[in-house]
Amino acid sequence: MLKGKTALVTGSTSGIGLAVATALAREGAGVMLNGFGDPAAIEELRAGLEAATGSRVRHHAADVAVAAEVAALVRATEESFGAVDILVNNAGIQFLSAVDEFPEERWKAIQDVVLNAGFHAIKAALPGMKRRGWGRIINVSSAHGLVASPFKSAYVAAKHGVVGLTRSVALEVAEAGITCNAICPGYVRTPLVEGQIDGLAQLHGLSREKTVRDVILSTQPTRRFVEVEEIAALAVYLCGEMARSITGAALSIDGGWTAR
């Protein structure tokens, strides 16, 4: 379905980003991975994905918290593949704290990675998409882009910002053959959520098992984690021609969390 297209997926060496990158590669898209990690392990991951899918896969270690590195990442993708047709802004970090105790450097880091990186990537990728008259921008927001939880002020603010950015961009490019949508997952079993489980357990004085059952999954009526493959399948659909009229949407995939 996506043969001849190129996808740039930030934060794609693990978790949601890796699942999305894998699904896009399986559909024939060339993929630029992005993320931190052991270089040897990342090369093994890259080569394995390329061999398994038959699609070209590259990796760039840009720090998306730095605007200049985001622009360099987009340029490197265009130079390597010829275009950025699909941009998936997925990179994220988390930190839990009461508002009046929230470290300012943590606040800034979350805004830079979760919100600002997406803006810089969109700004850099849009000119090429406009020239070609086709593009798909997918911003991975969160249920926390639609509702709030305590102790997550920076993350909630940033993810709400991602939804607002998505809607504004969608309106600007509505006649340019480009769509821009946000995917808003509930709790997904990823390394980021594993870290949240430990933090929440400490905050509430509970065991990990009780934290999962009574704190995290209490918000999701299905009482199960969302699977990364489910999010990846939605991303693939949004890249297809049958999704060309879906733009400016914040699509919940949260087990019913935001339906309450």
Give an overview in words.
The protein contains eight helices and seven strands, in the order βαβαβαβαβαβαααβ. The protein has 260 residues and is an alpha/beta fold. The protein has two domains: 6-186 and 227-253, NAD(P)-binding Rossmann-like Domain (Rossmann fold, 3-Layer(aba) Sandwich), CATH 3.40.50; 187-225, no CATH class. The protein has a seven-stranded parallel β-sheet with strand order 3-2-1-4-5-6-7, sandwiched between helices. Helix 1 (15-26) packs across helix 8, helix 3 packs parallel to helix 4 (104-132) and helix 4 (104-132) packs parallel to helix 5 (153-172). The mean pLDDT is 96.
Describe what is shown at a glance.
The protein is of the alpha/beta class and 260 residues long. 48% of the residues lie in helices and 13% in strands. It has a 7-stranded parallel beta sheet, sandwiched between helices.
